Amino acid sequence: MASDNGVAASCADQRLSRSQAFAASGSQQAGQSDGTGVLQATLWTGSGASWVDLAPVGSSGSVALGVSGGQQVGYAIVSGVFLASLWSGTSASWIDLSPAGSTDARALAVQGGRQAGQATIGGAIHAGWWNGTAASWVDLNTAAMSSSIAYAISGSEQAGQAIASGVTRAAKWTGTAASWVDLHPAGATFSAARGAYAGRQAGYADFAGVRHAGVWSGSAASWEDLSTALTGSWGETQARGIFSDATTLYVVGWGFNNTSSRFEALLWTRPLAGTCYPNCDGSTIAPTLNVQDFTCFINRFASGETYANCDHSTVPPVLNVQDFNCFLNAFAIGCP
Poorest-confidence range of 29-43, 86-100, 137-151, 156-170? Predict the structure, then answer.
């Protein structure tokens, strides 16, 4: 992570023999650390001194893999079983999200008060999502899938992968198993979506044995190969995260630089052509503006995203009721 002046800041703490941060949102960072000889889910707020041990009592290991809106998700190992986990900043806040009947469960992403991940049910891994409790689990696996995983969640959308007809395919859902969309690009032998944001998905697909980073806009036909934008000689590339504000698309990942013979972090950016601010969900099918854009705006407001600062205010609170009024006005004007 970086401080406001662009200088790298460390979250290391002298109590820890090792630590890793896997996700960040707002002022929070989530990951794991070894302070007691056991890897434990950990939360920071910008410094080593802010370290918070999230490990549930009785766990033999845990990790926080996602953070958003004051919630952290991951898993904890209790009595040898992996339990999907949700925290709200403290160890005592731990909630076991594991669905009834599951033998292994892991929460991999969180956004807008919803969580996404996987649960092993009947010997098969099923993608699914929650709304804060184990009982809220929604199974996204279909009869056509031998297994599936949801790696990301954005608003009402979940993204990940599903094995169908013997092929691992990038997948997206909008809340139900029946909503499954196969994102697998033509000619690929393997694909997976690892990030989702405002109607777009980021991930990778294998062509001729080489993994290519790419993005989708909700369909297999929308696949865009990001590796073609790189200069020089590159091998495998992967996209792992995606974000957009009102004007720009950002995708992060990594690739193997054949010249330097090492993996290197990558950031792709590009202007959003024909951007229409109130088209929050990025839909292109008429009518472009609809109730889904209101839901999208509310979710992004709740997550404290820059996009929701519609009136561009800079005096705290940056996000307030004026941003709702601004969005309503922009919606009423419509897209050109």
Answer: 29-43
SS3 category, 118: strand
Phi, psi of 324 (to 5 degrees): -65, -45
Q: In what order do the strands lie in the sheet with 190-197?
A: 190-197, 200-207, 210-216, 224-225
| Domain ranges in the chain with CATH number 2.130.10.150 | 18-271
Distance in angstroms between the alpha carbons of the first and the last residue of the chain? 38
326 Cβ partners below 8 Å, 6+ apart? 310, 311
Amino acid letter at 234?
A: W
The three-point CA angle 44-50-54 to 5° equals 55
Helix residue ranges per DSSP H, 179-255: none
Strands (E), 35-175: 39-44, 52-53, 61-68, 71-78, 81-87, 95-96, 104-111, 114-121, 124-130, 138-139, 145-154, 157-164, 167-173
**pLDDT tens-digit series, residues 82-118:** 999 999 999 999 999 999 999 999 999 999 999 999 9
Query: Where do we find the tokens 């472009």?
Result: 288
Question: What does the alpha-carbon distance between residue 197 and residue 55 come to, in Å, rounded to a whole number?
Answer: 29
- CATH fold label, 18-271: Methylamine Dehydrogenase; Chain H (2.130.10)
pLDDT at position 4 over 50 = no
Q: From CA 33, how far away is CA 16, in angstroms rounded? A: 6
Tell me the Ramachandran region of residue 297: left when phi exceeds 0, alpha when psi lies from -120 to 50, beta otherwise. Answer: alpha
Cβ contacts of 287 within 8 Å, gap of 6 or more: none
Query: CB within 8 A of 6, min separation 6: which ones?
Result: none
Closest CA to 38 of 14, 13, 63: 63
- Report d(CA 158, CA 152) in Å as an integer: 6
